[in-house]
Specification:
By secondary structure, this protein is mostly helical. The chain is built from 5 helices and no strands. Helix 1 runs antiparallel to helix 2 and helix 2 crosses helix 5.
Amino acid sequence: MLNNFKTYLLNQNYKPLTAEDYKGRIERLLAKEKFTLEHLVKNITSILPEYERNGKKHAYGKRSHSSVLNALRRFSEFLAEGTN
């Protein structure tokens, strides 16, 4: 599924390095939080706000110019499109 996410980003005109970076950020988030990909997919609507401004994990979300947060936002859009 994460490879499909990367392809989705490329189709959305993201640069290859950005697409790979966002895929990696999701992978690292899964490892850090000890989530499975399935858990993230099923709970993205409750997990994403934790990384937004005023969320309890905002400090992690804003790392590297908010790349973690942006990766989560794009992943949520990817799931909403249903093309996974």
